[in-house]
C-alpha cells in the first residue's frame, strides 16, 4: 500500500520543477510523480490542494545531546522537533558525552535513531580523540561505521599541523571536514559579538576576527590537502569574503549559515536575554546583510539550524553564566518563509534548495530531491498558515529560542519520512 | 509601586535631574528622619565594596529603614544557591528594595525581571554603576553653573569600567562632551554618535595631553592589576608613565579643572598623591555625596520621593512662576514625568549650598583615602 499525495504544488529545487502534480510513495521511495495519478484501491490519499510538496528538509548541523545530556534533548525528542519543523534528515554533532569519536558511539546513535527517532539521523564523528584537539580520531573506522562528516564542533582544531593531517585522512575516506571556526585566543571570555552593543551592555566581546582567522587558515589547509572543507555557522562579512574568494580560486570549500544569523543582530541581546546567546554570536547589521548577500550569490551553500538545546534552568542565569546555543528545528522554515521569502529577499525555490538539496549534496545523501526512486522524504508546507512561536509547545525538551513570540506565516503541516507520515498537523486530510 | 535603577542609560534627562535635585536637598542638610520607616532594604554584594555598601546602609538607616546585609560568603550562596534563587529568597523574606553588586553585567537586570520589589544596581560587571554616575554628576554640578557644555575627560581603563559607562550616559544626557583617554587596548571600539544626544559628543584619544586639553572635569579610572597579567598593558609602570593623572599632567586641563576618582585608588598607577590630595581634587566630596545620592535613589525607587517636602529648587521655581497650586497638582498626578528645573538652563542650583560644600571639601579633601 502506498501513500498518494494529490493536487499539491510540487517544488523540486534539484531540478527547478514547480508545478501542480500528484506524488506516489511506495516501499519508502518515490514511485511516481505525474500530473494525475489514479488513487487505485490500495493507497492512502492525502489531499495537498493549496499545499507545497517539497523534498524533506535536511539539517546538517544539530545537537541531539544524546548520549550524555539527555535532560536537554535526546534522539527521540530532537527528531520529534525535527519533523515538526519539516526536517526528514538531521546530521548530529559529536560533542556528546562521550563524544562520537569511536564506532561504538556511532552505532549507539544509529540504534537509538532506528528505535526511537522520527527522522533519519546521521552521526558526524570527531576529528580528534575525545574532541580534545590532541590526537587523531580513528577516521577510516568512523567513516566505515557510517559517520557522514568529521567535526570537533564547539571548538576549532587548534593545532594546524594536526588538522592538516586530519584533512589528508578525510580526503582519503571522502568525508567533509566541518570546522567551528573560532580562534579561542581571540574570543576568550567573550559572551557576545564585540561591537557597539558589547560596550553598551558591558559584556566581553567575541571579535569577528576570531572567526575569520580560522576560516582563512582552514581555506589554505584545504587548498593544500585537497580535502573538502565545510565552514559551519558562518557569521561575519569577513568570512563571507574569504569563502567567496576561495571558491573563485576553486578551493573545495562549502559553507552554512543559521536562520538566527540571517535574521537577527547583536542589538537583540539588549535585555540580557540568554536565549540570544550563542556561538558564534549574533553579529552587527553589516555582517547580517553580508550573510544574506552570500546566500544569494551562492557563497554560502546551505542553511543549518545549529539546534543547540539547553534547559530553561540552565538559561535562567546571569548572561555570562549561561551556556551558548539556541534551538532552531521547529522555527527555521517558518522564520525564513516569513522574513526572507515574503519580503522578496530570497525566492521560495532558493530557500528550499538551501534547506534540502545543497546540504544533502554536501553530505553525499540520496535525498534532497524529488525524482523516481529517491527516498520517500517529503514535507508539505502551508504558505498561508499563521502561527505564533510559543516555546511551551515545542516537541524539543528545551525552550531556548530567540524567536519566542514571533508571528509567522508559513509552516510545515506534514512531514513524511521513508513513505511514512511522521508528523501531521490536524488540518491535513488523510483518507484511507 | 517600585522602580528599578539598572543604569543611567535607562533614565530620562528629567529623571536624572530629579534625582540630583533630591540628592542635593539632602546634601544641603535636609533631614530624612522616618521617611523610610517600616521599609526593608537588603544588600546583596557579590564583590567587596566599602563606599557603595556603607553609603547605601547609612542612607537607609538615617531614613529609618531596616537594613539587612546578605553576606554572600556566609549565606547559601556558598552552598551553591543560584543568583536567581537568592534574589527570590530575599524578596520572599520581605525586601522592599534589593541593592545588588555583581561581577557579571546584567545580573541586576535579570533580578528585576524576577521580583516585584525595587532592584538597585550597585555595580554590575563592566555594565553600569548608576549611583556612582549620579554622585559624579552631583559633585560636578555643585561646582559648576551647568553641566551642559562642559568638557569631561575619562582617563584609563575605559573598556572595562562600569563607572565610565555610567559617566558616559549621565554626562552626555546632561549635555557635556566627553573624551575617552587611554592606551588603545583599553579603549572601546568606535561608538556610533547615534547613541548620544548630540553629534560628536564623544571622542577618543590615546594621548593624555590631547585628551586633557581644555578639560573642565578629569576623571581618573581605577586600573586593575590583572590588566598587566592579561596583556592589556606592558606593565603598570609603563601605563603610569603615559597615563597617570599627576599634578603635572593635570596642567594640560583647564586651570580650574575638577579631578574625580571613583575609588579605591591605586596611588602611583592611575593617579598620584599630589593630584589626588591637591587643590583640584573633589574625590572626598564624591564619597560624601554618596549618602545623599543613595538616599534619593532609595526614595525614588520606592516611589515615596513625592511624599517629602519638595526640593528647594522646585519650591523656588514654583514661587517664581507664582503658581504653586499647579505644581502640587502635577506632583500628585504624574510624579514621574512632571517638568523639573533643567540644569542646562541654569535654573536649578542656587548659589547657597556651594559655599558649605566647598568648606566641606577643604575640611576633608586633604585626608588620604581609606
Total strand count of chain B, please? 9
CATH architectural designation of the largest domain in chain B: 3-Layer(aba) Sandwich
Characterize the largest beta sheet of chain B: strand count, sense, and whether it forms a barrel: 5 strands, parallel
CATH topology of the largest domain in chain B: Rossmann fold
Order of strands in the sheet with the most strands of chain B?
Answer: 7-6-5-8-9
Question: Main β-sheet of chain A, in a few words?
Answer: 9 strands, mixed
How big a fraction of the residues of chain B is strand?
A: 5-15%
Detail the topology: elements first, then pairings.
The complex is a heterodimer of chains A (432) and B (370).
Chain A (H helix, E strand, L loop, with lengths): L2 E10 L4 E10 L2 E6 L9 E4 L4 E4 L1 E6 L12 H10 L2 E6 L10 H14 L3 E4 L15 H7 L4 E2 L8 H14 L3 E3 L4 H4 L4 E2 L2 H6 L3 E2 L1 H18 L3 E3 L5 H13 L3 E5 L1 H5 L21 H12 L5 E2 L8 H4 L16 H10 L6 H15 L15 E11 L18 E11 L2 E5 L5 E2 L1
Parallel strand pairs in A: 1-4, 1-5, 6-7, 7-8, 9-10, 10-13, 11-12, 13-14, 14-15
Antiparallel strand pairs in A: 1-2, 2-3, 4-19, 5-16, 16-17, 17-18
Chain B lengths: L12 H15 L12 E6 L5 H12 L3 E5 L12 H10 L4 E6 L4 H6 L5 E7 L5 H12 L9 E5 L6 H12 L3 E5 L20 E4 L2 H5 L4 E4 L5 H4 L6 H8 L14 E3 L12 H4 L6 H19 L10 H10 L2 H10 L18 H13 L6
Parallel strand pairs in B: 1-2, 1-3, 3-4, 5-6, 5-8, 6-7, 8-9
Description of the molecule:
The complex is a heterodimer of chains A (432) and B (370). Chain A is α/β, with parallel strands linked by helices and 432 residues long. Chain A has two domains: 3-53 and 376-431, Urease, subunit C, domain 1 (Roll), CATH 2.30.40.10; 56-362, Alpha-Beta Barrel (TIM Barrel). Chain A has helices spanning 75-84, 103-116, 139-145, 160-173, 184-187, 196-201, 208-225, 237-249, 259-263, 285-296, 312-315, 332-341, 348-362; strands at residues 3-12, 17-26, 29-34, 44-47, 52-55, 57-62, 87-92, 120-123, 150-151, 177-179, 192-193, 205-206, 229-231, 253-257, 302-303, 378-388, 407-417, 420-424, 430-431. In chain A, strands 1, 2, 3, 4, 5, 16, 17, 18 and 19 form a nine-stranded mixed sheet that branches. A five-stranded parallel sheet of chain A has the order 9-10-13-14-15. The longest helix of chain A has 18 residues, at 208-225. The model of chain A has no long low-confidence stretch (mean pLDDT 97). Chain B is of the alpha/beta class. Chain B has two domains: 8-128 and 290-301, Aspartate/ornithine carbamoyltransferase (Rossmann fold, 3-Layer(aba) Sandwich), CATH 3.40.50; 144-281, Aspartate/ornithine carbamoyltransferase (Rossmann fold, 3-Layer(aba) Sandwich), CATH 3.40.50.1370. Helices cover 38% and strands 12% of the residues of chain B. Chain B contains 14 helices and nine strands. Chain B has helices spanning 13-27, 51-62, 83-92, 107-112, 130-141, 162-173, 208-212, 226-229, 236-243, 273-276, 283-301, 312-321, 324-333, 352-364; strands at residues 40-45, 66-70, 97-102, 118-124, 151-155, 177-181, 202-205, 217-220, 258-260. In chain B, the strands form two sheets. Chain B has a five-stranded parallel sheet. In chain B, strands 2-1-3-4 form a four-stranded parallel sheet, with helices on both faces. In chain B, helix 2 (51-62) links the parallel strand 1 (40-45) and strand 2 (66-70). In chain B, helix 5 crosses helix 6. The longest helix of chain B is centred in the C-terminal third of the chain and has 19 residues, at 283-301. Chain B is globular. At the A-B interface, helix 6 of A face helix 4 of B.
Amino acid at each position: 500500500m502506498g501513500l498518494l499525495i494529490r493536487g499539491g504544488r510540487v517544488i523540486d529545487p534539484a531540478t527547478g520543477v514547480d508545478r501542480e502534480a500528484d506524488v506516489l510513495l511506495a516501499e519508502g521511495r518515490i514511485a511516481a510523480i505525474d500530473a494525475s495519478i489514479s488513487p487505485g484501491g490500495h493507497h492512502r490519499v492525502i489531499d495537498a490542494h493549496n499545499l507545497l510538496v517539497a523534498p524533506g528538509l535536511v539539517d546538517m548541523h544539530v545537537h541531539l545531546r544524546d548520549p550524555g545530556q539527555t535532560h536537554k534533548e535526546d534522539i527521540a525528542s530532537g527528531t520529534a522537533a525535527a519533523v515538526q519543523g519539516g526536517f526528514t534528515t538531521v546530521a548530529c554533532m559529536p560533542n556528546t558525552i562521550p563524544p562520537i569519536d569511536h564506532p561504538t558511539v556511532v552505532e549507539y546513535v544509529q540504534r537509538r535513531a532506528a528505535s526511537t527517532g522520527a527522522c533519519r539521523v546521521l552521526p558526524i564523528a570527531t576529528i580528534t580523540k575525545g574532541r580534545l584537539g590532541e590526537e587523531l580520531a580513528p577516521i577510516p573506522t568512523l567513516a566505515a561505521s557510517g559517520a557522514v562528516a568529521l567535526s570537533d564542533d564547539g571548538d576549532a582544531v587548534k593545532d594546524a599541523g594536526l588538522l592538516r593531517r586530519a584533512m589528508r585522512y578525510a580526503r582519503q575516506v571522502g568525508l567533509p571536514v566541518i570546522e567551528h571556526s573560532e580562534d579561542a585566543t581571540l574570543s576568550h571570555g567573550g559572551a557576545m559579538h564585540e561591537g557597539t552593543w558589547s560596550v553598551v551592555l558591558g559584556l566581553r566581546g567575541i571579535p569577528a576576527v576570531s572567526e575569520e582567522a580560522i576560516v582563512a587558515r582552514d581555506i589554505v589547509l584545504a587548498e593544500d590537502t585537497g580535502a573538502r572543507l565545510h565552514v559551519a555557522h558562518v557569521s561575519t562579512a569577513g568570512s563571507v569574503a574569504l569563502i567567496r574568494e576561495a571558491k573563485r580560486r576553486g578551493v573545495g570549500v562549502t559553507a552554512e549559515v543559521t536562520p538566527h544569523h540571517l535574521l537577527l543582530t547583536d542589538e537583540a541581546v539588549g535585555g540580557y536575554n540568554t536565549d540570544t546567546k550563542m556561538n558564534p554570536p549574533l553579529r552587527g547589521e553589516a555582517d547580517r546583510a553580508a550573510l544574506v548577500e552570500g546566500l544569494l550569490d551562492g557563497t554560502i551553500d546551505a542553511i543549518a539550524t545549529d539546534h543547540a538545546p539547553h534547559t530553561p534552568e540552565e538559561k535562567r542565569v546571569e548572561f555570562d553564566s549561561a551556556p551558548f546555543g539556541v534551538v532552531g528545528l521547529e522555527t527555521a522554515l517558518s522564520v525564513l518563509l516569513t522574513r526572507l521569502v515574503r519580503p522578496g529577499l530570497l525566492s521560495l525555490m532558493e530557500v528550499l534548495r538551501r534547506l534540502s538539496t545543497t546540504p544533502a549534496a554536501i553530505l553525499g545523501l540520496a535525498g534532497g530531491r524529488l525524482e523516481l526512486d529517491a527516498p520517500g522524504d517529503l514535507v508539505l508546507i502551508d504558505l498561508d498558515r499563521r502561527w505564533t512561536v510559543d516555546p511551551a509547545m515545542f516537541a524539543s525538551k528545551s525552550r531556548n529560542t530567540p524567536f519566542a513570540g514571533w508571528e509567522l506565516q508559513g509552516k510545515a503541516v506534514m512531514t513524511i519520512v521513508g513513505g511514512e507520515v511522521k508528523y501531521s498537523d490536524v488540518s491535513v486530510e488523510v483518507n484511507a | 509601586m517600585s522602580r528599578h535603577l539598572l543604569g543611567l542609560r535607562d533614565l530620562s534627562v528629567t529623571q536624572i535631574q530629579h534625582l540630583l535635585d533630591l540628592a542635593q536637598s539632602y546634601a544641603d542638610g535636609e533631614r530624612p528622619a522616618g521617611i523610610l520607616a517600616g521599609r526593608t532594604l537588603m544588600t546583596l554584594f557579590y564583590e567587596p565594596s566599602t563606599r557603595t555598601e556603607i553609603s547605601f546602609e547609612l542612607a537607609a538607616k538615617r531614613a529609618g529603614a531596616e537594613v539587612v546585609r546578605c553576606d554572600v560568603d556566609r549565606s547559601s550562596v556558598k552552598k551553591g544557591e543560584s543568583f536567581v534563587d537568592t534574589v527570590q529568597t530575599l524578596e520572599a523574606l520581605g525586601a522592599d528594595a534589593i541593592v545588588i553588586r555583581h561581577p557579571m553585567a546584567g545580573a541586576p537586570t535579570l533580578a528585576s525581571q524576577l521580583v516585584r520589589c525595587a532592584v538597585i544596581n550597585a555595580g554590575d560587571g563592566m555594565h553600569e554603576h548608576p549611583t556612582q554616575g549620579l554622585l559624579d554628576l552631583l559633585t560636578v554640578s555643585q561646582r559648576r553653573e551647568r553641566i551642559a557644555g562642559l568638557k569631561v575627560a575619562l582617563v584609563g581603563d575605559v573598556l572595562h569600567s562600569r563607572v565610565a559607562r555610567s559617566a558616559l550616559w549621565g554626562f552626555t544626557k546632561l549635555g557635556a562632551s566627553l573624551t575617552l583617554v587611554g592606551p588603545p587596548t583599553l579603549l572601546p571600539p568606535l561608538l556610533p554618535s547615534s547613541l548620544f544626544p548630540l553629534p560628536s559628543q564623544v571622542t577618543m584619544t590615546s594621548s593624555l595631553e590631547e585628551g586633557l586639553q581644555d578639560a573642565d572635569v578629569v576623571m581618573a579610572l581605577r586600573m586593575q592589576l590583572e590588566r598587566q597579567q592579561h596583556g592589556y598593558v606592558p606593565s603598570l609602570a609603563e601605563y603610569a608613565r603615559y597615563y597617570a593623572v599627576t599634578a603635572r599632567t593635570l596642567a594640560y586641563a583647564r586651570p580650574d579643572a575638577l579631578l574625580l576618582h571613583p575609588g579605591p585608588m591605586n596611588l602611583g598607577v592611575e593617579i598620584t598623591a599630589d593630584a589626588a590630595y591637591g587643590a583640584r581634587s573633589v574625590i572626598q566630596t564624591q564619597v560624601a555625596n554618596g549618602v545623599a545620592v543613595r538616599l534619593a535613589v532609595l526614595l525614588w525607587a520606592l516611589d515615596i520621593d513625592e511624599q517629602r517636602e519638595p526640593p528647594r529648587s522646585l519650591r523656588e521655581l514654583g514661587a517664581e512662576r507664582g503658581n504653586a497650586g499647579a505644581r502640587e497638582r502635577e506632583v500628585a498626578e504624574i510624579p514621574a514625568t512632571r517638568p523639573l528645573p533643567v540644569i542646562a538652563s541654569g535654573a536649578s542650583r542656587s548659589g547657597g549650598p556651594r559655599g558649605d560644600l566647598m568648606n566641606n571639601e577643604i575640611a576633608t579633601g586633604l585626608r588620604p583615602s581609606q
